[in-house]
Each structure stands twice: as structure tokens, then as C-alpha cells.
Design goal:
By secondary structure, the protein is mainly alpha-helical. 73% of the residues lie in helices and 6% in strands. Among the domains are: 154-190; 291-422, P-loop containing nucleotide triphosphate hydrolases (Rossmann fold, 3-Layer(aba) Sandwich), CATH 3.40.50.300. It has helices at 2-75, 79-197, 209-230, 234-272, 277-312, 352-367, 386-402, 419-422; strands at 317-323, 328-334, 345-346, 374-378, 407-411.
């Protein structure tokens, strides 16, 4: 049965392929026919549009024809009207004859008027010629008057300028006289002060200011050369001697103190040990160095712990690196305390508010290791948002309360909107008055 179905299946597949090809060809023919149908519909629409336009034009032409027929029928007169028009024509012809006769009379009168007008025109031209001559003379007189007026104005301006120059010259003369009197008084005071120091020096005859100045410069160069040979001026040598004496006195005091310590230490250790005095002093110095290193280490440790504690107030974490030998200090801050595996970031990668908050934490941690009684901060919250500002203010106030005998002064251009700070009894807020724009000096002396 399987061998009998295989040829039939193949035949059915071939039939299916041929049917699919026929379907595709019919689809192509369908698209072509559809395009033709669309084109025919477009032509039908164009034909209908043209038909409507022609019908509209025909209606307009029909209306024009009816209107013209009405006008023609209205313009065709009847016989009675023609007779009346003939009578009117005769009346008009009679009027035309009378008008022609009257026109001839008017022409004669016009000729006489023309002749009279020509004579009047000649007289008028002669009069206009005389008027032009008079106007020309008037223009010349006006030009002369304007020239004289300009000269008068120039003379007046020159006079006023001369008067102003005279007034300025008088003022300058007065000021010069006052300056002369003041200089004379100053000269007398200078002479009196100079005579109080030494009597007046007689200037040799023939000496001038230039020659005396030249001699003075020679003396100055000679003095500088002598000072260079001596190793400095009199004041410098005296100051050097005083400094050397002070160094000698300090060294003598230190030596006496060391001798006293050595005597005391030598007496104590000689009683129970065989150490020499030099060894005792060296051991004491090493002991002091060890205590200093421990003290410095404890201060550094406390600063690191305080810095990290301050950062935790804002859910930050960080580290404080102190290099005493290189005299360097560096901080690293991680703004998110929940990120355990991430390394702390440098301050230059932080935002403005994060950097300001980290700086405040660093200052508060370092102030704990300082002995300054007054601690000031200027514009510490410029780049902070409201949350960072409130937390920072509360931290600073809390640190100020814990620091006994210390005074904190905070300066900020921001508005103090923190109600909690306003309600604190031990915090005083002083608001400065607004600055006066355009002022050139402060009004402290007013």
C-alpha cells in the first residue's frame, strides 16, 4: 500500500505546485485589472468634474443671454417716442444755433480781452523786472546784515572767552599765591625743624644743587663700600650682635637646665645603677620621644575616629590618612554607608554638598586636637542642600556644647530657616544689615 500511495502523493504535490503557480498568476492579473479599474474610476471622476464645470458655464451663458435679450427689448423705442424725440431734436438744433451766435459774440469779446491782457502782461512783466531788481538789492542787504551779525556774534564769543580766561587766570593767580604762601610757611617750618637738629650749613660759593647732589652720592657710595667691608650697616651689625647675644643667653639657659637635669638624674641613678650621666640623659630623651610619639598617635587615632563618627551622621563612611613624616593629610569618603565592598572616593570626585559636608566633618575632628579658644567658619553651607545644612548645623552646635571653654562663630550668607537652631537658648543669631550697593567705604566711622 505504501508503494501505491507514493506516486499519488507525488502527483498531488505536483498538482499543488501547479495550482499555486496559477494562483500567483491570477493574483498578478487581478492586480493589473485592479489598476485598470482604479484608472477608469479616476477618469470617470475627472469626467464628472468636467461635466459639472461645463454645466455651470452653460447656466451662466443662459443667464447672460436672458439678460441681453431684456436689455435689447428695453432699448428699442416705439413710434410715439420717436416723434417726441424728433421734436426734442428740433428744439436742440434751435438752441444750438442760438448758442453758436452767442459763441461768435463771445469770441469777439475774447479777442478784445486777449489784446487787453497782452498789454497788461507787458506792464506786469515790466513791474516784475523792477520787483526782481528791488529783491536783488534786498538780498544783498540781508547778506550784508547776516555777515555783520556773524561778526558781531564772533566778537561777543571772543569777548566772553577773553572774560572767562581772565577769570580763570585770576583764579589760578589766587591759587598760585595761596600755594606760594603755604610753601613759604612749610619752608619756614622745615628750616626751623632742620635748625633744631643742627645749625644751618654754609654752602660754599659757586656750589649748586647738582654739584652738592653729586658729592652726596659720592659719600653714599663710600658709606656703602665701608659697610660692605664691615659686613653690614651699623643697624644691621647692632641687630646681629643682639641676635647673637640672645642665642648665647638661650643656649646658656638651656645648658644650665641640662646640667641641672643631669645632676639630678645622675644622683638618682648613681645610687642604684652603674649608668653614666650621658647614658641617663640619652635614656631620658628617648623616653620623652616615645611619649611624644604615643601622644601624637593617640591624637591621630582620635581624629580618625571622630571623622568617621561625624560622617556616619549623614550615612557616610570614610577614612583619614595622616602622614606625619611627609606632613600630608588626605581623606577618602564613600557617600553610601550601605556599600560595604566599594572603596572610598577622593574629595574631587564628590559633589558640592558632599564635599562641603566632608570638610565640616574634617574640621570638627581636627578641632578636637587643637587648643584654640575661638573657632570660626565662613560660608560653610554655600554648596549644601537643606538636608545637609540642617545636619551640619546640629553637628556643629553639638560639638560646641561638648567643647567646654570654646567659642564657635559661624558666618553664612544663607537664610537661617532651621527652627530647631532658633529655639536653642545657647545659640545666638546675629543678622547683618544688607550692604549698600555702590558704596566706596564702610560706615564704621559714622
Amino acid at each position: 500500500m505504501q508503494s501505491d500511495n507514493a506516486p499519488r502523493i507525488q502527483d498531488e504535490k505536483d498538482n499543488l505546485v501547479s495550482i499555486q503557480q496559477q494562483i500567483r498568476s491570477l493574483e498578478v492579473e487581478h492586480r493589473v485589472v485592479q489598476d485598470k479599474v482604479n484608472a477608469c474610476q479616476a477618469r470617470i471622476q475627472n469626467h464628472n468634474r468636467t461635466k459639472r464645470q461645463l454645466k455651470e458655464r452653460m447656466d451662466c451663458a443662459q443667464e447672460d443671454r436672458d439678460r441681453l435679450e431684456e436689455e435689447v427689448s428695453a432699448s428699442t423705442p416705439d413710434a410715439a417716442q420717436i416723434e417726441e424725440l424728433e421734436k426734442e431734436k428740433e428744439d436742440f438744433e434751435e438752441r444750438l444755433r442760438l448758442d453758436r451766435e452767442q459763441f461768435e459774440d463771445l469770441v469777439m469779446l475774447m479777442d478784445e480781452a486777449k489784446r487787453e491782457a497782452q498789454s497788461q502782461k507787458a506792464a506786469s512783466e515790466a513791474a516784475e523786472g523792477r520787483v526782481q531788481e528791488i529783491q536783488f538789492k534786498i538780498e544783498k542787504i540781508r547778506a550784508k546784515i547776516e555777515t555783520l551779525m556773524r561778526r558781531r556774534e564772533q566778537a561777543l564769543r571772543g569777548k566772553n572767552t577773553a572774560l572767562d580766561e581772565v577769570a580763570r587766570a585770576e583764579e589760578e593767580k589766587s591759587s598760585w599765591e595761596r600755594s606760594r604762601d603755604m610753601q613759604a610757611v612749610e619752608l619756614e617750618n622745615t628750616i626751623r625743624q632742620a635748625q633744631a637738629i643742627c645749625p644751618r650749613v654754609d654752602v660754599p660759593e659757586g656750589e649748586t644743587f647738582a654739584s652738592l647732589e653729586q658729592k652726596r652720592q659720592i659719600k653714599i657710595r663710600e658709606r656703602e663700600r665701608q659697610e660692605k667691608l664691615l659686613g653690614g650697616s651699623r643697624k644691621e651689625i647692632s641687630d646681629g650682635a643682639l641676635r647673637a647675644k640672645k642665642i648665647w643667653v638661650d643656649a646658656s639657659l638651656q645648658l644650665r637646665a641640662t646640667d641641672s637635669v643631669r645632676r639630678v638624674r645622675g644622683y638618682i641613678y648613681n645610687a642604684s645603677s652603674s649608668l653614666t650621666r650621658a647614658q641617663v640623659l640619652k635614656q631620658a630623651l628617648n623616653n620623652r620621644k616615645e611619649r611624644w610619639l604615643r601622644f601624637r598617635q593617640e591624637i591621630s587615632c582620635r581624629a580618625r575616629v571622630t571623622f568617621n563618627y561625624m560622617l556616619s551622621e549623614r550615612q557616610f563612611r570614610g577614612s583619614l590618612a595622616i602622614d606625619h613624616h611627609g606632613r600630608r593629610l588626605d581623606i577618602h569618603v564613600q557617600p553610601d554607608i550601605t556599600v560595604a565592598g566599594a572603596a572610598a572616593r577622593q574629595t574631587k570626585t564628590l559633589s558640592g554638598g558632599e564635599k562641603s559636608f566632608s570638610t565640616i566633618c574634617l574640621l570638627l575632628s581636627l578641632w578636637e586636637a587643637m587648643g584654640s579658644p575661638i573657632r570660626c567658619l565662613d560660608e560653610f553651607d554655600v554648596f549644601m542642600d537643606n538636608v545637609n545644612r540642617e545636619i551640619t548645623m546640629e553637628m556643629i552646635v553639638e560639638a560646641a556644647r561638648k567643647a567646654t571653654g570654646r567659642q564657635y562663630i559661624l558666618i553664612t550668607p544663607q537664610a537661617m530657616t532651621n527652627k530647631k537652631v532658633h529655639s536653642m537658648d545657647d545659640v545666638r543669631i546675629i543678622r547683618m544689615s544688607d550692604p549698600e550697593r555702590g558704596q566706596t567705604a564702610l560706615n564704621f566711622g559714622r
